[in-house]
Amino acid sequence: MLYNASSWQYKKIKKTFIATLFMFELDILFKIRYLSAMDLSSGTQEFDYLFKLLMIGDSGVGKSSLLLSFTTDAFEDLSPTIGVDFKVKYVTMGSKKLKLAIWDTAGQERFRTLTSSYYRGAQGIILVYDVTRRDTFTNLSDIWSKEIDLYSTNQDCIKMLVGNKVDKEGDRVVTKKEGIDFAREYGCLFTECSAKTRVNVQQCFEELVLKILDTPSLLADGSKGVRNNIFKDRPPQSDASTSSCC
């Protein structure tokens, strides 16, 4: 079907195409920057295992703030992530030195076709919701759990459900029991935390990593022999307070 250049259909298609092309190019640039950063850091510190962790959830739930709080011990009110971002954190668990590559994905719908490839190879996925926003909790089952089923390539991937912003207790609309029930239904670890006050932030990531270390198939994925595969994926070219394991 041909559209007149002045028609609203043509303008809409053109706008969508330009936006998609821009995001694809932005995504490619990110991958180049990411791989370069990993190459530069690969020889600076020895480690036994490399684990890829992915953070997902609606825009504005505090994924980037949680990541910043964990990796730098700081808190900032951040703008929504564009496409995908990442941080690297070295930790020691027992006698093992670990390198965590933590991917922070955008929650906006327009970025999902580009970020779907980042599920590939993830040993751990952190699902974040805002305890003061009911819709961010509802979307866990309506959107995010379905994306995990569709895109995750590790059937033993460990999932951690995180209710963020417990520092705003007076504005809470999602109860802790609801979080526990969801975690039990979907087979997740669970905790509530605050990126702002850092309550349970460290424990959230540490418990997830400990569970990965306790899963033989994921441990093999993180070994030195296959660790480079985590960074070789390419994006598609088409359009609680006390944690518990359930």
From TrEMBL:
Principal location class: membrane
Gene3D superfamilies: P-loop containing nucleotide triphosphate hydrolases
Secretion signal, residue range per the UniProt entry: none
Topological category with respect to the lipid bilayer: Lipid-anchor
Gene Ontology cellular-component terms listed: plasma membrane
Presence of keyword Cytoplasm: no
Function: Intracellular vesicle trafficking and protein transport.
Protein's name according to its UniProt entry: Ras-related protein RABC1
Organism encoding this protein: Phaseolus coccineus (Scarlet runner bean)
